[in-house]
Amino acid sequence: MLPPRFPLEFLVPRSRVTMSQIRACAACALLAVAIAPTTVFAVDAESASARRSLDETPRMHGSDPSDSSDDVGWNAHFFSSIPGDAGRIVTAPARWSASEWGEAAAVAGVGIALYAEDERIQGWMQRRRSQTTNRVAKLVKPFGREYVAIGLVGFAIASPFVDDERVKRTALLGGESMIFAGLGYEGLQLLTSRPRPDTGAGRDAWGGPKGHGNHSFPSGHTTAAFAFATIVADEWKAVPGIPLLAYTLATGVGLSRMNDDAHWASDAFTGAVLGYFSATAVEYLHRSKHDLTISPVFGPDEKSIAVTWNF
């Protein structure tokens, strides 16, 4: 009987942590500290005055300034809510509408179509594999493991020093989405035990629950890349180019694994869907309480109500 694997093994590098990775982690934290203040929406002088008045005014109902409607924070409440979030995600299909089931069917259809063409796609990519594609794949692959871990730690380190909720939310929601995506990844790996394409076993070789040593379905790198990229893209969508960059790198990770003949196309696609769904669900669960904020504004020359809608 095989020993149980660490649930987030797909994210943890198998090699020792090097000084270059530690320096990269520190650089990521410094980068978050540096860019966060510069990426806030620009406002005119009147709006800035109203915002300052809002910041200086106690909240309604006599609550103290630390009482925020955002439930994402370095506190016991957030971490104790993770099991409940997991339950809501697992049971989410029971609450899907007809249109959502239609979308799920469309995604499943794409996965089935890719599975049918797995060997043809593999052959096409391997015939075009070159030293250039290998070099690109080597550069992009860490964005599905090492750089994700470095990014999470970097945002976590930076969050106490940056007055920007997005830094804290990226660290915490990124970590939560990684947990859910990792559990889904491990479950599928243990249930399917699909051999990698470079073994020559063929597209239809599945070891099932009793199989071992086969870790092709789904792609762990692609799962991690999309789980983190989706959080980054959603939290930093106000910054031009960030969503496009995040998803481009995540897609590149999936293609790099296919270039290396480590995964079938359907493996990479399933990993992308798993990572994206996990992150989107986490964002949804922690968004409803702070999308709409209604607060009083008391300034020297005005008394009004400010309505803020984040979308």
Q: Quick summary of this structure?
A:
With 311 residues, this protein is mostly helical. It has helices at residues 19-35, 45-55, 76-80, 82-90, 98-116, 118-127, 131-140, 146-158, 165-192, 220-235, 242-259, 265-285; strands at 292-298, 303-309.
Structure report:
With 311 residues, the protein is mainly alpha-helical. 57% of the residues lie in helices and 5% in strands. The protein is built from 12 helices and 2 strands; from the N terminus they run ααααααααααααββ. The protein has helices at 19-35, 45-55, 76-80, 82-90, 98-116, 118-127, 131-140, 146-158, 165-192, 220-235, 242-259, 265-285; strands at 292-298, 303-309. The chain has a two-stranded antiparallel sheet. Helix 9 (165-192) packs antiparallel against helix 10 (220-235) and helix 10 (220-235) packs antiparallel against helix 11. It is globular. It starts with 18 loop residues before the first helix and ends with a strand. Residues 1-10, 23-69 and 288-292 have low confidence and may be disordered.
